[in-house]
Each structure stands twice: as structure tokens, then as C-alpha cells.
Design brief:
Structural class: alpha+beta
CATH class of the largest domain: Alpha Beta
Distance between the termini: 15 Å
Shape: globular
Radius of gyration: 23 Å
CATH architecture of the largest domain: 3-Layer(aba) Sandwich
Number of strands: 15
Amino acid sequence: MNCAHPISKTAGLSCLRALTLLLGIFIFIPASRGEPVSREGRVVIKYWEKWTGFEGDAMKAVVDDFNASQNRIYVDYLTISEIDRKLMLATGGGNPPDVAGVWSFMVPVYAENNALTPLDKLAAKYGLKRDDYIDVYWQLCCHRGRLWALPTTPASLALHWNKKMFRAAGLDPEKPPRSIAELEMMNEKLTRTNEDGTLKVVGHLADEPGWWSTNWNFWFGGSYYDNDHLTVDTPENRASFEWMQSYPKRFGKENVLLFKEGFGNSFASPQNPFFREKVAMVIQGVWMYNFIKNYAPKDFEWGVAPFPSVDPVKLKDVTIVEEDILVIPVGSKHPHEAFEFMKYVNSQKPMEKLCMGQRKFTPLKKVSPEFLKTHPNPYIKIFIDLAKSPNAKTLPSVTTWTQLKSDLIWAVGEVMRVMTTPQDALMYVQKHQQKALDRRNELWGRIQNERLKEWDRREAEL
């Protein structure tokens, strides 16, 4: 299959079988009590998925359709808590599910830990091609030149703004900022303080909601990784951290902390600061529509646009993309049947049903007019266009990403508390994490040939 060129020479081996005694702590939650189609006489494949609520219901409906569409395969759908940990344990113990729904950032670690089945041969057999997908979502399923997963529901990030707050501040509610400079100009007009000088309303905060604070560098032209080397301490990355630090310096770090304390754990509630008109502009994903519909006031006026970058010409339509994926763990008893189900999910009609149920968009290039016409999110086309942008960014595809992210979170915290300079924080992360990456590279160099032969053998057995 036409996966991207191999990315990095990073590797990591987990001692999986040593952990199999922990398998007894698994909690299996049936996604549905009813079995509308009998499994008798069929090949039963076990499918583990992380989704709950309406997201789980959307996939359960697709599973039910698949089970009813033929009489050879029955998909037994189970919702699993802490799936990232439990899937690795089950695979190491030799008792994995046949197919699992996880996140795309897990691909490098799971692939290099021999926990996934390479899918290039099966994809070719069933006629699945890279050209069928929005390119970045196929790429997220690849690692070291091989295909390890298929997409389910994708996401991209965009600016969400409160039109009523814009209007009240004398701003055009239909014209969001096009650059970081414009965003900060609007921020000044939108921000109001109480008589004692504490913050009452702000236009924007760099750490609200804070889920992507480690990745503002993308909107400044930065990155964290280039082949075998980290690129943490660069002028672009420093500029993004300096921009973040401008908030506590401008408003006062105690003021910002006090203001944010009033938010509490209020994202999925009517107390969300964006819904309460405490914050006028936030960065959020395509899923935000669901929370606006369920928790925002009935007269809430909002818009969506690409989040502005430092240079709207050179850095146009920057976004971060992620996706949920389906994988076949090593040790699956029915890999062919599992892939047949995965192929069904990746067909246009089932995929659109799943993504519509979760109020997201499809990773497939081909989209029915009815999907776009009937989608409840009035801005769904913006999220699709952002995913197709050449400036659609992904998290670094390295097996040390978890450690790197942990250090970056520390750096963001130190910078936002004005405890250190952006340069000193990034220099520390660069030095500390490059050592970790070098160790992984060295390990991969020792086991690379053996690992590649093993992947070839597994694929030949399919």
C-alpha cells in the first residue's frame, strides 16, 4: 500500500507477557443488551471499543447493520474502559479481541511493540486505497511505510467565537480574526474587568480550554520533530510560548488563575465559560457542536473559522487533526473476518452513518450530497476543508511522544506561571527529550532487521 515514507527510527519494546496477570482487572461493559441477529453458525469476532454514550450508540447501530447484512460473521461489540492499557495487556497475554477501536496517536508505539497486525495485504485484497481518503487520515494509520489501521471518525480544530459578545464590543460578528495580531486587537476590545481590577470577561485565553496548549507552535510555523531529531528549541516555538506568556504578563498571573478558578470542571455543562459569555473565543474540535446544542443557551450565537496564525498568508488554514481508528491486534483469531468488518465500516454509507451519529465528518474523500445537506452542524464544511489543508498538522509520530508531551506540559505550566522564560523551558525539554529519543533510536537500530522480517512473516501468513 502507498503509505508514507518511514518516519523516524524510533522504537520501543514492552515486556507484554509479564503483565498478563493483570488481565483479571478488565471490566467488560456490553454496548447493548439485545441481540437482534443470532450469532449461531457464524464466525464471532470480538470488537472492543472505547466509546460510550451517543458515540457508542452510533457505532452500535453500524455493527447491528453489519450483522444483519450477511450471515457469516457476527460482531460482538463491547465497550472497554482504559482500552489503551488493556489492549496492550490482552495482546501480550495472547487473548486480544479480533478488532479494536483506539486513537491514531497509538499507532507508532503499538506497531513497534509488536501489538498490531500489518494491514497492507488485506487492504489490497479488499480494494482499499489511499486515494479514497482525505490524505492526512490515511497517513495517521501508517508507520514506517506500512498500514496498521483504518479510520473511523476524524476531527479537526477551529476557532469558535461568540457573535453576541463581538456585537456588544463593537466588533463585526461575522468577521473573526484572520491573524494572531487581529485576535489580540479584538481581545483588548472584548476584555472587561471588575471594579477591583479582576477579570470579568476575556476575549481569549491561550490556556482555555488548554487541551492543545503544547501545540500552539503550529500556528507560528513551528514543529517538534524532524526525522531523528527533535526541534523543540526553535525561534518559531519560542514565539508561540512567548505569545502564551503574554497573557499572564498582560492580565496578571494571579488574575488569570482567579478567573479560571471560576470555571471549575464545567466543560460539558451550561457553566462552560464559552456558553456563559466569560470567554468570547476558543479553539475546539468538530465535536463542539454537540455541547453547544446540549448546554448553550437557546439564543446562543456562534461561528466557526480557521484559527488565525501569526502569518495568514504563509500559514493559511492551520489546524490539528486526529482520528479514531480500527486495528487488528496481533493474536486475533479471525483477522480476515475482522478486516471484512473494518472494510464495511469504511464503505461510504456505513461511514456516513457513523460520522453523522457522532456529528463529525467522514475521512473519505467521497461524500454524499445528503450528508452535507442534512448535517446538523452548520459549519461542518469548514472542518472538512481544514482537514484537507496542507497546513493540517498531526502530533509527532514518534514512540516517545508521551514523554515529550509530559515535558511540554511542564514547560507550558512554568511559562504560564511566569516561573521561567520560554527559551529556558524549551532548551530543557530539547535536551531532556533528545536523550530519550536517542535511546529509542539506538534500540530500534538493534532490532530493526528482526522486526521488519517479523512484520513480513505476519503479513505473508494472512
